[in-house]
Amino acid sequence: MSIELLHILGKRDNYFRFFKYIKTDVLPKEVLTIVKDLEDYYKVIEKDIDWGEFSSWFCLVKHSTYKPDQLDTYQNIFLKLEEYEDTPVAESIVEKLIMSEFKVDTKHVHLDPNHFTTFAFVSLMLDGERDFVFNRGADAQLTVEEVAAIDLTETHIIHFGSATAFLDGPLNAAYYFLLESAKNQGKTISSDPNYRHLLFGDKQESFIKQSWIYLKQAHFTKLSDEEAMLITGKTTLEAAAADLLANIPGVFTITLGKDGTLLGLHGKTYIIPSIQIKPTDTTGAGDAFVGAVLYQLDDASLNPAELGFEDWNKIIQNANKAGARTCEYMGAMEAFMTLKNATNQFHAR
Asked: What angle do CA 171, 174, 177 make, to 5 degrees?
């Protein structure tokens, strides 16, 4: 990934937007040197990087005292950067990661030739928790017309889990249109607000207001403890859970990390414990949890409202395991590859 990182930072705007979020202590020595030298170069050259020109400056000006074998190492890196070709990210994801590895039906995926794929740059803290920086692109452009063209006849569950749908752009209207379509067609509605503070900034109130609309329509809702307190305006988990019990009709869960999950069901709350793991990276844990819940509901064509505690206890126990196991791997994709081989465990009955 080092070449890809340097390629991204070769765009001047990207460098000054993302440099402060880079965890420099995990970079190879040569890559770290180049990353730091890019700052000096950009002070003189106010344009995107030409790696041939940068190579000359680096070797002849910045590091003229380096030994030949040292310079050879860097020149090999610069040669790779010169030869690097942008692979359309969306096509790469769809063709390589999803279709060949995960067998996900991509018939409703839209490839936008005019906008880049939205990126989430994830940095890890020592405890495996994450911080996000977003570079938003094509997802904002999804339209009502494109969503209206989707045939929902064979679909049992519609999940609303976008981190960006409550922001400005055509996607916002498309999201609301899909919610109304799901309601009118009697679909099971699932919701995960997916709050990211760097996305919303001073628009937090808009996020809260829109979240309530979906929470009140959803048959199943997944929240983090942070989201539960933010959306309800309460300062304790207990108060937030009580507020949710009083104001939303569906089943809800509040994930509590290593402490498991709080389940809100039929006017009561329950704590469903998780399994003990040594976390490496929590990226994708929430998605794995939701995916495991929805897999079980869809696999058995279960109606969330008709299930009692015994059923939900089994569902959440499995979902807790899926979320926890995801944290044992670096990155969500590797973890999901492992989890997909264990899906025969996920049955509510």
From this structure: 155
